[in-house]
Amino acid sequence: MTHGLDVHSMQHLVDAIVAARDAARGRLHVLSIDARVQWQELESQLDCLQSRIEYEGTHIKPSAVAKVREVTESVTVFLCEHAAQTFVAA
User: Fold this and answer.
1) ∠74-77-79 over CA atoms, to 5°?
2) Cα four-point dihedral sign 27, 30, 34, 37
């Protein structure tokens, strides 16, 4: 029994990772040093997940899909938490 994804689903995962990364990178210049360190940790997770998706291809496991959702949600929370900092500096 295969648990893999089709190429279309994999592209959605990669697109979600890229969108999360791009959304945060656009705000990095106004973040505190602590927030930047937190972002570097999140970005490292995004990079690892993207590499895993590209390496495993359509054979990626459901646990990796769940991890993509978890990390992209963490980026969303991060951006919300630091939104006030973005607007103050702008």
Assistant:
1) 110
2) positive
Asked whether the beta carbons of 13 and 65 are under 8 A apart, the reply is: yes
pTM of the model: 0.75
Reading the chain (90 residues) residue by residue, the pLDDT tens digits are 345 567 778 888 899 999 988 888 888 888 888 989 999 999 999 999 999 988 888 888 888 889 989 999 999 899 888 876 554 444
Residues across the chain: 90
- Tokens representing 56? 């495993």
Q: How far apart are CA 26 and CA 30, in angstroms?
A: 9
Structural tokens at position 84: 């006030």
Rounded Cα–Cα distance for residues 55 and 26 (Å): 28
